[in-house]
Amino acid sequence: MKSLTLRSLPYLVILLCSVLIMGANPFKGETVAPTDILVNYPGWQNLHFDLQTRHPNRSDMLDARLPRWIQAKRALRDGELPIWNPYPVNGIPGLQWLPAAILTPAFGVFAAIGNDAAGYYFALLTNLLIAGVGTYLLLFALTRNRLAATFGALVFAFNGFHAAWFFWAHITSSIKRVFDLMKDFGTSKSTKIDSIFDSLLVPR
After folding, report:
1. Which residues are paired to 84 by β-bridges?
2. 89-135, pLDDT tens digit by residue?
3. Which of 59, 114, 166, 173 is buried most deeply by CB count within 10 Å?
4. How far, in Å, CA of 120 to CA of 73, rounded?
């Protein structure tokens, strides 16, 4: 039992820290939105924004992404493949347009939850968990040190790039790199860490 608790603790820490970082309670109708919440923090008061937080499942920035996801989810729930979105002028590509990030685990979570606000919250949480857990597994395989691997996982999951692009498809490419590294480490004949860092410099 003690061994099982020890093995489970890093995952629980990653989950708890991710929930705390998100800072919203989806069970009270809250979700995470960038601009209208961000400008109410003290660091932005010198810009003199007079903007109250609106309904938590909308924001100007998210208007560029949520409509795509909502349309794709509705199409899937109607038994259709969302390969075309007819609502913008002249229509736009659907799931085959990779920047829309529809072919991702995060969208799968979003589509599985009926409420759009709650679905988007858990979709974003999924990205953090994939980043954190994937990094933990990689670092633990390298170091065999759970504390160091947990710390490294949190650093990667909550890094500045993820914070800047948290609501966009860029984070999908970033968290995928962890699994590229895991593959490189697992299939390499050499266990030198240099071979893993080298893969960071070689585009796939």
Report:
1. 93
2. 788 889 888 888 899 999 999 999 999 889 999 999 999 999 999 99
3. 59
4. 12
